[in-house]
Amino acid sequence: WSLWGTSSSDVFAVGLGGVIVHYDGSVWSEMESGTEINLRWVWGNSSTDVFVVGDEGIILRYDGSGWSEMESGSEEDFYCAWGTSTADIFAVGMTGTIVHYDGIEWSPMDCGNTTNLYGVWGSSPNNVYAVGEYGTFLRYDGSRWNWVGVAPYAVYFHIFHVWGTSPTDVFLVGSWGLIGHYDGNETKEMVSGISRHLNGVWGASSTDVFAVGGGGNILHYYEEPPTPTVEPTATPEPDTSDDASSTWLWPVVGVAGVAIVVSLVLYDRRARKTPSGG
User: Is this model's pTM higher than 0.85 or not?
Assistant: First the structure.
């Protein structure tokens, strides 16, 4: 379901049935989690301080030598976790459940919401966002959770993940190819060009962002097209926009054993073109 790491030779991945595996730069090795409960998300503060959340309120912590279970105070399924430090971690899940870890214990937070929450991310301890069903978009200001306005269309979608670079640069992804951008005042739609669910979003900067989802879809957002380093296996659609400065790159990824086949289609988000097979 999720992976996180400190470097290319220190990566953790979690999944169904309590599975945790670790990559050391050469091979993946299974770790003893001590549970068979589904694990949904992994986040860490360092290679020797890693947290995992999952179904039935489970939270695990890795100290560099082994995994141990923490008392979460909840029996609801957790879907995501994020923090600024070992003493400031948020976990979100079913029926509006949010718990916070202060370095000593996990405590419930009242967000005034009962819809399922699927993602959490923040730019600081006083600026944290949680997203979920039916366009749910919440913000924590350091003292309380408040509703953030979203575009009217978003209430018909589920928002599965959130990521950004600052309080004025936040990306949302969700069901049926939903991508939204929040500028600190309002959320605007960004056309993804696909109808598959998008489950994750992350970037290196505000102009270098990736979204992933169903059907092996990986989308890449950038403002200036990079110089191609490989020959695309598909012919890009012609650009009919007079101002094509922002682009999503849409690869279709297929995995068979260790083989990964990628075909690329370029399109401009303002032209609202949809790649075939999306």
Answer: no
Neighbouring residues of 84: CB distance < 8 A, sequence distance ≥ 6: 122, 124, 125
**Segment 33-90, tens digit of pLDDT:** 999 999 999 999 999 999 999 999 999 999 999 999 999 999 999 999 999 999 999 9
Q: Structural domain boundaries of the chain? A: 2-271
- Measure the CA–CA gap between 113 and 110, rounded to whole angstroms: 8
pLDDT of residue 225: 53
Residue 159 to residue 184: CA distance in whole angstroms: 17
Report CA Rg, the chain.
Answer: 19
The 10 Å Cβ neighbour count of residue 133 is 20
Q: In the structure encoding, which two tokens stand for residue 109, read together?
A: 């937070």
Top-level class of domain 2-271: mainly beta
Joined tokens for residue 8 = 């290319």
Find out whether 95 and 110 touch, Cβ atoms under 8 Å: no
- Tell me the sheet residues that pair with 85: 88
Rounded CA gap, 150 and 129, in Å? 13
- Sign of the alpha-carbon torsion through 184, 186, 192, 194: positive
Cβ contact 20:36 at 8 Å: no
Nearest to 210 by CA among 257, 177, 239, 249: 249
Predicted local confidence at residue 191, as pLDDT? 87
